[in-house]
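Hi team,

Filling in the usual template for the complex we talked about on Friday. All components are listed, including any nucleic acid strands or ligand strings, so the model treats them as one assembly.

SUBMITTER: L.P.
PURPOSE: interface mapping
COMPONENTS: two
RESIDUES: 537
SEQUENCES:
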Amino acid sequence: MNSTYPTTWKRPPQLVQSRVWRIVLTVGAIAYLLVAIGSVEVNWARVVVGMERAQRFIAGFLQPDFTTRWRDISNGLVESLTMTLTSTVVGVLISIPIGVGAARNLAPSWLYVICRSIIAVSRAVQEIIIAIFFVALFGFGAFAGFLTLSFATIGFIGKLLAEEIEDIDPAQAEAIRATGASWFQLINYAVQPQVMPRLIGLSLYRLDINFRESAVIGIVGAGGIGGTLNTALSRYEYDSAGAILMIIIAIVMVAEYSSSHLRKLVK
Amino acid sequence: MSMTSSPAPVWQHRTPFARLLLWMGWLALVALFVYCWNLMTARTMWVFVYDAPNAASDLLGRAFPPRWAYMDVLWKPLWDTLSIATLGTLLGIIMAVPLAFLAANNTTPSRLLLRPVALLAIVASRSINSLIWALLLVSILGPGLLAGILAIAFRSIGFIGKLLYEAIEETDDKQIEAITATGASKSQILNYAIVPQVLPTFYGISVFRWDINIRESAILGLVGAGGIGAQLQSSLNVLAWPQVSLIMLVILATVVVSEWVSAKVRHAII
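RESULT (copied from the run log):
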């Protein structure tokens, strides 16, 4: 018996096993990319002009100007921060009954369908589009932003809370039910203690997200620091814009760090 | 048997001090809420707010039915939106992958110099929303698809970079050790021990980000970065609500389809 062993080894493909499909997919991807890149029209003359602006922007970012527009910046900041807190509180308060209603183990099926569709609508539509509508309805300013963020919070917290409630330990609910507890007592003594830490964690996480979003929805007129940034950029005041961006980045970092820290503490 | 008058102690979950602390905490939250509410609504025009139900019914009356004929104009911006998302994601991946390898604790060439720089780049990219990136880039490069693609790419770097470097740090040491034991060079270790382990995660992250990018590229046009959002902006400017409602429906359909595709692909890979 003299079997020859191969001296070279070829790595087997990890993703698509069939050779034909690999070729078809690669050719298709390359063809799509060529068409897509071909359809992008770039005004190179404008880009060259822009390079000079990019330099000014980087210079403005390195030497941010906090003082000239400080009144606008601080107004925008106060709006953003207050909007973040109030919308998170209101959004969480509204999403608790919706989350309970969207939990299959607690709610009757008609209520389940209603609550799930509220959540689906709130999650499918981007914040900025909701903001456009609320600005059209409620006028410019922080109130429209507050409503936008509250609405977006409902979908986020509602969905995750409902999933958390569906995952509770059924033995505890069974035990409370066996004592003859009413539905509200069941929620209060069996469900609430199990999901409360997670709910607080989610709310802190959403507080963090809401600040990020509050910096954006100002662009369509819903108040907050985004509006100030938009104004600064359309006036080509890159040093003020640099200052605003630095403030946003700093707050986002602090919010993310402290929110993840607090969440670990609650857990 | 004596009947003592002292009542049996009632069971309580927390000590009195803990309860006091808890109450103070909630009170502080309520106080903060009221304070913030007052600050926020100081400049609210309540007339507009009270008028909102009328405005809403008026708006809905104008917006429906959507102007279906406008769809002919929308195919090109829709294609542009898709291009922004796909090309932006690809560009983001190209920049994020080296950054992720520089940022991961077990693959970084220098823990003191390059790793902090890579981490800083990832964090900075993540903390700026793609709409703000677009705002900056439109101001620098002028309106158009290029600004949108770059905005999506710059935002994607942080997302893909962060998730990928975490995946690289979680790779199994044993496989790396096994490859090292064969006498493999540094690049061979990377190629045969680390890359195969993170590849499925990498595909998953990329498709997930592509899905998010479709959502975001649909609205980038609001600040002038091309795509269907530009059409939305121009329709809003002339208050053409039937067109606005059609665009909303198209965006919603795109988002649903891309979410479905991304879920299917991720299911097939992982």
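MY TAKE: The CA atoms of residues 6 and 93 of chain A lie 67 Å apart. Chain A touches chain B through 61 residues (CB under 8 Å).

Thanks, L.
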